[in-house]
Amino acid sequence: MLRESIVRFARVLLLLGLLAAAAACDSSGSNTEGPETPEPPGTPPVDCDAAIDFEDACGPYTFADFGGGVATVIDNPDPSGINTSDKVTQMQKFAGEVFGGSALALDAPVDWTQGTAFTMKVWASRPADVLFKLEGLNQERSNVQSGSSSWEELCFDFADATQGEDATDMTVIFDLGTVGDAADDPENWTFYFDGITQTDACEESDVAYELVFADEFDSGTAPSGDKWTIETGYGPDDDGWGNNEWQLYTPSPDNVRVEDGNLVISAQCLSPPCESRDGSITSGKINSLGKFEFKFGRVEARIKPPVGKAAWPAFWSLGTNFPIVDWPRSGEIDFMELHNAFSNERTTHFTMHWCDESVQAPGQCSFPEGWVFNTQNRTFPESLGDDFHIFEAEWDESKIIGKIDGLVYFTKAINPETMEEFLREFYLILNVAMGGTLGSNNQPPSGTETYPQTMLVDYVRVYKRAGEASGEN
Q: What is the pLDDT of residue 312?
């Protein structure tokens, strides 16, 4: 009886198998797919071509971690706001290298006909710099997550860099320049990103600004005394302004004047030989201390800089508590610097200096422990001295963004706990230095420098967010 029961059961299984096979064939006898498993009610279908969303149906995703960065696809820890997807990538940055991050391998090289910018949703519990790099193309762009503990959409514009090698990987790095500590401080070193989408272009900021300060340099023969002070000398300690610079700053119209609608600042050597701090090399420097100060907003100047050997032109700012508060505790923002000692005439630099007192005893601020600086640059095919360029910064409570001719090339998140310098008022400075730390790498004049080295400034303008106090004295 047991054997007969087993036989009968086997025949039933065979019959069921034949029926299933018949159901999977069409009338012509060819195989067709069976019915899809229905999605739960209210669940939208996943479009794997629309964005890189890290959903299970679209994987697998291959990450190459490096330098202490670890990327892991996990369940969305905060499905809210602009990102309610199921899966996201968690990025943790552990102790390793300052560049720790991870690279995501692409199935195919980037197709630029689909757009020249990328958006990415990012979550962070504190202000954080986010670098997005296209490997192969070897181009990177940066943006800032404000630290809102919510999802924000950041945009990375590659419109000027779509030529060259194929882009085969996307690299993401948080806080480039800082070693992570996700083991001991996971809250501050755990980030999330999702929804990488190719788009036509980054949208313009919708922040409303109003003009609060402007000098168009259209009248008179000298900078307005209501707006500017002309600085003189070799610095308070006669040491070349703390940088071993060569030039003597003077009020002479040879060095500082207004002419043909421009501010003219010119480094001269009218009586060779041209030596360091002996009176032979002169130049100009102006500042707005006590006449105009600002905190947050947009700053811009249209400048044609000098690019000769040892020239060090700059458009920059210091905290208004300087020199009562020593540097770098006062804070410094360099909107534009050109220097040939470590760079070239085709490269502009944007830099921030501050003192992180959390890592050094009070009363001290030395490099590299307490004195911190972040510098980023952009190099162009042509000399920046060939024409005027607009150097610009956007500054708010959470970040500073630097631009040249509308192109973003600097971003830095402001950590209020360690960068309180940038939550205070600053004043403006324009000058042309010669030699020194960045002009000649502290080398004396060689005799091969040429003079004059002249900077033309078409205008300087400062805008505040609509409704905020201007900060003008």
A: 97
Q: Do 56-199 and 209-465 have matching folds?
A: yes
Measured CA to CA, the distance from residue 278 to residue 333 in angstroms comes to 30
Residue showing tokens 């820890």: 77
CATH 2.60.120.200 is right for the domain spanning 209-465? yes
Cα separation, 355 vs 319, in Å, equals: 12
Residue 34 has pLDDT above 90, yes or no: no
> What pLDDT is recorded for position 37?
44
Summarised one tens digit per residue, pLDDT across range 57-91 is 998 999 999 999 999 999 999 999 999 999 999 99
Q: Per residue in 322-379, pLDDT tens?
A: 999 999 999 999 999 999 888 899 999 999 999 988 777 667 788 877 899 999 999 9
pTM above 0.70, yes or no: yes
Question: For residue 213, what pLDDT band results from cuts at 50, 70 and 90?
Answer: very high
Catalytic member of 337, 392, 394, 421: 337
- Of 332, 345, 392, 421, which is the active-site residue? 332
Which CATH topology does 56-199 take?
Answer: Jelly Rolls (2.60.120)
For the chain, the domains span: 56-199, 209-465
Q: Which of 105-114, 252-261, 269-278 is least confident?
A: 105-114
**Does the structure show a pLDDT above 90 at 403?**
yes
337 in catalytic set: yes
CB 76 within 8 A of CB 88: yes
